[in-house]
Amino acid sequence: MKRTRIVVVGNGMAGSRLAEELRRRDPDGERLDIVVIGAEAHPAYNRILLSNVLAGSITGRDTRLKPDGWWERQGIDVRSGVRVTGIDTAARTVRCDDGTGAGHDEIGYDELVLATGSRSFIPPIAGAVDESDALVDGVAAFRTIGDCDQIIAAATGGSSAVVLGGGLLGLEAARGLLMRGMDVTVVHPKDFPMERQLDPAGGAVLTRVLTELGMRMVLGRRAVARDAENRTVVLDDGTELPADLLVLSAGIRPEVSLAEAAGIAVDQAIVVDDLLRTSAPRVSAIGECAQHRGEVYGLVQPGWEQAAVVAERLAGENRFATYHGTANVTRLKAHDIDLASMGDISAEMHCSHSEVLTLADPTRGRYAKVVVREDRVVGAVLLGNPDVVGTLTQLFDAQLPVPVDRMSLLIGRGSGAGVEVASPATMPGSAVVCRCNSVTKSQLTTAWKAGARGVAAMATETRATTGCGGCSSVVQGICEWLRNSDPEPRDQPAHETPSIEEEGAA
Ligand SMILES: Cc1cc2nc3c(=O)[nH]c(=O)nc-3n(C[C@H](O)[C@H](O)[C@H](O)COP(=O)(O)OP(=O)(O)OC[C@H]3O[C@@H](n4cnc5c(N)ncnc54)[C@H](O)[C@@H]3O)c2cc1C
């Protein structure tokens, strides 16, 4: 039987997940010939964890998504350090360049999936790039493991850094540099940081928290130039800030050049339908390079959900598998700052169709806003309030009814209400507990059954809790529940935990 050749362009978080999902549906490789082509020289890694690498809590090697040799053992043909330079949608081939100057390779496909992600937006700052548009020495973006290495090499204690952009990534970079002993200034064009995830009141509390940690926040300003000689950054009001290092974290742009050149429809990103097909026959797109129902996501969860949908379709399980969109939950992964944001928090206090609950304790760096509509959480922001994040995330994700005592949403377990809905016993097996590493309750249960008896052992087996750490209390709760419901340890060696949940487990 002729195998279907599926070529995936991009060995990032969505592309590698797709390859894994496809192989899971054809474990012996009888039907699917999977080729993954990735421009980065590294094996697939968890990009989310780069903030932890920058902060020095883990190494680049710890970010690898799979152990050495895993892809070969799965019979997946991974070509790292190879860039796809063209697509011929009529001949169904892609052109590849391995950068060695040895010429171009052509690879044929039956199905092509674009998972080219995004690139950092480089704002127009005089002196930041050379004549070939490459960043000059002392200026770095924050997107790849290569960027991270470059920043770490330049981050010497006592020297100064300016981070452009007070969004999630900018703040994570700034916190990491602060922890490396640098003098750090964040320059952000809006009146408060993380304006996409926060409201002004929450933004003011976050600014205070960051300032108290030692970060200088310059808000409502843009950088216009970098002076290499004086090692400064010049702002639009003429202020000069010391900057031995300038980190650009001013947003991302979907990587669509390949699709555009091939005549595939592109708007803000590559346009896909509910089956995640592009305008070209037999070409799909997933992850940050895809635009679905007008939405372009900048988080990993949608890409992983899209990978599962495309795998279902291309592996012949369900030719009409559809994607319906993903509800976003964002967590700031920065030491000493606990911030989670989900859904739509734009409703005002006296909104007639929503209940808006708020709590502000700026002196202690705490702020919470929860928006409830028809007894469901439609949005929330929680700063300095880690105890309620797990419960609220579960309520939001599963759209479960909220407790009658609404205050418990803001103050958590202490109130004695609202805990039950998110108890491990009632949580579905498919609930994602650790978003950074995409670990479900089922996987934790499987790890427990394989001998992982505690949070540390679960972390080793599944990587849960090793990202932002925000799921630690939920993992702890699952351990307690399993200890009570499955008290007898089995003499069974721990084995490699399947990285995709076993359907129906738990
Ligand atoms: C520091 C950092 C922290 C983050 N933290 C979070 C977080 O806490 N939570 C969250 O949900 N998200 C977070 N994100 C975002 C998350 O990493 C992305 O949403 C996710 O990586 C998107 O996956 P992707 O596969 O679409 O793109 P990517 O992971 O960027 O992969 C795309 C790959 O395609 C390759 N490529 C592009 N063009 C070509 C070509 N022509 N030929 C071959 N290969 C090509 C690229 O080199 C890249 O390796 C973070 C990102 C960063 C940088």
From TrEMBL:
Ranges where the FAD/NAD(P)-binding domain occurs: 5-299
Listed Basic and acidic residues bias regions: 483-494
Keywords: FAD, Flavoprotein, Heme, Iron, Iron-sulfur, Metal-binding, Oxidoreductase
Domain NADH-rubredoxin oxidoreductase C-terminal: 329-385
Cofactor requirements of the protein: [4Fe-4S] cluster; siroheme; FAD
Stored InterPro entries: BFD-like_2Fe2S-bd_dom (IPR007419), BFD-like_2Fe2S-bd_dom_sf (IPR041854), FAD/NAD-bd_sf (IPR036188), FAD/NAD-binding_dom (IPR023753), FAD/NAD-linked_Rdtase_dimer_sf (IPR016156), NasD-like (IPR052034), Rubredoxin_C (IPR041575)
SUPFAM superfamilies hit by this protein: FAD/NAD(P)-binding domain (SSF51905)
Gene Ontology molecular function: iron-sulfur cluster binding; metal ion binding; oxidoreductase activity
Region annotation (Disordered) ranges: 483-506
Domain BFD-like [2Fe-2S]-binding: 432-478
Pfam families in UniProt: Fer2_BFD (PF04324), Pyr_redox_2 (PF07992), Rubredoxin_C (PF18267)
Pathway: Nitrogen metabolism; nitrate reduction (assimilation)
Family designation: Belongs to the nitrite and sulfite reductase 4Fe-4S domain family.
Protein name (Swiss-Prot/TrEMBL): Assimilatory nitrate reductase electron transfer subunit
Lineage start: Bacteria, Bacillati, Actinomycetota, Actinomycetes, Mycobacteriales
